[in-house]
Specification:
By secondary structure, the protein is α+β, with helices and mostly antiparallel strands. The chain contains 6 helices and 9 strands. The strands form 2 sheets. Strands 2, 3, 4, 5, 7 and 8 form a 6-stranded antiparallel sheet that branches. α1 runs antiparallel to α2 and α2 packs across α3.
């Protein structure tokens, strides 16, 4: 309890009303994520459930890998060997916007819902397959990228999560 870094006598009264006013599975699960995120522990989360949140995030995922580098969302590689995506985004491209939202605004929106022990781990998790930023309910997503100082609007054809293998996301196969 002493490692959390926040006064739970203040956190609980702030967050308990969200549980009381939750009207459906999604608002309840979001309240759970908010309180879990406040304990600042990478090992805490809603594992093996949270179907409403998974539905909200969507069943599609960007076909490229990305990481935050100096607080910028940067394309770092690809999940699938697809010439289509390789012709649209390249490693080193900075993603400025996803849809109509600036990446910085999306980070601010989803950071309180991303449990982790530190900011860098939250950033990593935001762009993971379980994160909020690169998932979508749509098969395609508009993005604004910055390549060497030139801004471009691109359409990214997302891939179904079901097509990703454990090897694709860096996990060992069973």
């Amino acid at each position: 309890r002493h490692l959390i870094g926040e006064d739970w006598n203040k956190v609980l009264p702030e967050l308990i009303p969200e549980f009381c006013t939750a009207t459906d599975a999604l608002t309840y699960q979001l309240a759970c994520l908010k309180i879990i995120a406040r304990i600042h522990d990478t090992h805490a989360g809603l594992w093996g459930g949270a179907a409403a949140i998974q539905k909200m995030k969507g069943e599609y995922f960007a076909p490229f890998q990305a990481s935050f580098i100096e607080d910028k969302l940067v394309v770092t590689g690809y999940y699938k060997d697809s010439m289509t995506v390789k012709n649209i985004v390249k490693p080193g491209d900075i993603i400025e916007k996803i849809g109509d939202s600036k990446v910085a605004d999306l980070v601010a929106k989803y950071l309180p819902l991303t449990p982790a022990s530190n900011y860098e781990t939250q950033q990593r998790d935001l762009v993971s397959i379980q994160g909020f930023l690169l998932r979508s309910t749509n098969k395609s997503v508009q993005m604004t990228i910055n390549r060497d100082g030139k801004i471009a609007e691109v359409t990214i054809e997302q891939m179904p999560l079901a097509k990703l293998t454990k090897a694709d996301i860096g996990e060992k196969a069973d």
